[in-house]
């Protein structure tokens, strides 16, 4: 088992950032990744959808995707969208 790569999420994830977020995550696919969400102050629904899709891809690949220290702002948006933070993660295979 290899150590997870720590990948900080941008502080602002606006709708127009969804494609760039998707591209950056695709470049990490197949490797264990720990998403550092501690600095997120704004996250839009399209970016949450990208993170949900990434978690599903990592689960299908049997690779760990973690979410580290989600900020209060991020947790508030997830709660508003009725998204459990655990849904943005993939357990270790």
TrEMBL record:
<dbReference type="InterPro" id="IPR036513">
    <property type="entry name" value="STAS_dom_sf"/>
</dbReference>
<feature type="domain" description="MlaB-like STAS">
    <location>
        <begin position="9"/>
        <end position="83"/>
    </location>
</feature>
<dbReference type="Pfam" id="PF13466">
    <property type="entry name" value="STAS_2"/>
</dbReference>
<protein>
    <submittedName>
        <fullName>Chemotaxis protein CheX</fullName>
    </submittedName>
</protein>
<dbReference type="InterPro" id="IPR058548">
    <property type="entry name" value="MlaB-like_STAS"/>
</dbReference>
């Amino acid at each position: 088992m290899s150590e997870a790569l720590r990948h900080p999420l941008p502080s602002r994830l606006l709708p127009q950032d969804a494609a760039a977020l998707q591209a950056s995550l695709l470049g990490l696919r197949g490797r264990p990744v720990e998403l550092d969400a501690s600095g997120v102050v704004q996250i839009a629904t399209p970016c949450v959808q990208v993170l949900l899709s990434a978690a599903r891809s990592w689960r299908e690949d049997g690779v760990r995707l973690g979410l580290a220290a989600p900020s209060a702002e991020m947790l508030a948006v997830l709660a508003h969208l009725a998204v459990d933070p655990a849904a943005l993660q993939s357990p270790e295979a």
